[in-house]
Design goal:
Arc Repressor Mutant, subunit A; Rossmann fold; 2 domains; five-stranded parallel beta sheet
């Protein structure tokens, strides 16, 4: 997980107190490694409790865990690579170059935002779930469908509907043994929020794949995995967020698949044998 990049991603959405802490850490991260919570609070002009809340806010259990992760980074870990927007006068060669740069930037930033502990917990929750419900609308449907197909091949009970009303109806019997995975770049899509609220109220464990910006879905979820808040314009934005969602879903699938790899391989072979008959 890229500590500095994660902090930078949230700059537009922090409270005034969080912004003080974030700004100080970004400018003085080498010094922060050797500071206690009390001394860091004094340097930032905040409180000890505010420091602890901030590091937990960005995905760490406490200050020591945060400082250990920070010690492994350097200035180059803050990714500032900007991607040019598509223009009508672009040649195909230029289009290819911009697409390449956008794809690399998106993948790099998605990996930087990954929190290994959260990813491991999400994998465990999905593996143990009685039923898995996927919630996705619009551009998020494609990665969700791909994830559903992969899980179905290894005999996981997974539900996803493209129609919002059927999606809601499928949650009628959701309970605490189930996991709901909601994918929403904005974290404010009405259909996703309504369905997620219903699932949470019925005791289901909610995992969100969304931006790191304190949106409604992120606040509601028990666990969140983050998409980079790319600013690539309307041409590349949807492609970028979909690519990030595909990557996170693939990592979740690989994590589930490896828990009992021999059994997973056997299940996939069984599926392939049936398909071959067609």
């Amino acid at each position: 997980m890229g500590v500095l990049f994660t902090i930078q991603e949230g700059l537009e959405f922090y409270t005034k107190t969080e912004l003080k802490i974030a700004s100080y850490i970004l400018k003085n991260h080498q010094q922060v490694i050797n500071e206690s919570a009390n001394s860091l609070a004094d340097l930032c002009g905040t409180s000890n409790a505010a420091i602890i809340r901030f590091v937990q806010r960005i995905g760490y259990e406490g200050l020591n865990q945060f400082k250990l992760a920070l010690a492994k980074e350097n200035d180059e870990d803050i990714l500032n690579n900007k991607v040019d927007v598509i223009k009508s006068e672009d040649s195909i060669a230029s289009l290819i170059q911009k697409s390449h740069e956008a794809s690399k930037s998106t993948l790099d930033k998605t990996y930087e935002l990954l929190n290994i502990a959260k990813l491991e917990k999400a994998i465990d929750k999905l593996y143990q779930a009685r039923n898995i419900y996927l919630l996705a609308i619009g551009d998020s449907l494609n990665p969700a469908n791909a994830f559903k197909d992969k899980l179905a091949r290894i005999n996981k009970r997974v539900t996803l509907f493209s129609d919002y009303h059927i999606q809601m109806a499928s949650l009628a019997y959701v309970n605490p043994d189930d996991v709901v995975l909601a994918i929403s770049f904005s974290g404010e899509t009405k259909g996703i929020i309504t369905a997620s609220e219903y699932a949470v109220n019925n005791g289901a464990y909610l995992i969100a794949i969304t931006q790191f910006n304190q949106n409604s879905l992120m606040k509601m979820a028990s666990l969140s995995l983050y998409l980079p808040s790319e600013k690539m314009g309307i041409e590349l934005g949807p492609i970028s967020s979909s690519m990030s969602s595909y990557l996170i879903c693939d990592l979740l699938y690989l994590g589930i698949a490896k828990i009992n790899l021999n059994e997973t391989v056997a299940k996939i072979k069984s599926c392939d044998e049936i398909i071959d008959k067609l």
